[in-house]
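Q: I'm teaching a short session on how sequence maps to structure, and I want students to see two examples side by side rather than one. Could you give me a first protein with its sequence written out and its structure tokens following it? Keep the formatting plain so it prints cleanly on a handout.
A: Of course. Example one:
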Amino acid sequence: MSYSGTGNEKAVTASDLDRTHVGLTVSFEPDEFTLVFGRIGAIARKEGGVTLVLAGVDGAGGMPAHYSLPPTQQVYVQPDKLTSTETAIKDMFGKVQDNLRTHKGDQRPGGM
């Protein structure tokens, strides 16, 4: 396999994962035969690697709950919906403010 994420996922190296990523949905290839999709329950940094623990797996279906990854391993993170929505709202509000300023500047005093 050669998974490179989907259009809305952000590539992050395993060594760059931190507490802000806990709870986010990720996808990664722990080996050449496996593609994992899950939610990060915990992140542990060890000498020479990073361990990801998936939330809610508990070994169900023979699937391991944790994966040891090299620090350079690409992990694809789904954007946090709340943060993405907040950013979109702020952007739209900024555009509305700009439009109001532009239209206010177009008004001519005195009428007809």
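Q: Perfect. Now a second example for contrast.
A: Example two:
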Amino acid sequence: MGPDDRSFLEQMATTLDASIRVLEAETRDLAAHIGEERVAELRAYFRRELEPIDLEELRNALDFDDRRLLSLWARLERNRARRVAAGRKTMALDAGREDIDVAAYDKSKKT
């Protein structure tokens, strides 16, 4: 990997960090607007902790703010995973180990 690749990884990490901060702020503001009880219900829905019948019932009752919060959580999850991947790749480069496949260490894909 050349210096352009390293520069790209660093820029990507910086951009992701900024994006994560913005998404976290939006999430906090929207969660405060929605209320603790509804946020707890949505969190259980997002994590698929509810029974299938309850998931369906909640899905049918989602309003715009609920959907927006779920979208923010999904974007945060993706951006955090990408940030971790960029960090791992950078660490592998710093160790002089370009042969390491950092995708093999992606815990978010394991069940």
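Q: What should students look for in example two?
A: Point them to this: Residues 3-109 form one domain. Also worth mentioning: Residues 35 and 68 are 14 Å apart (CA to CA).
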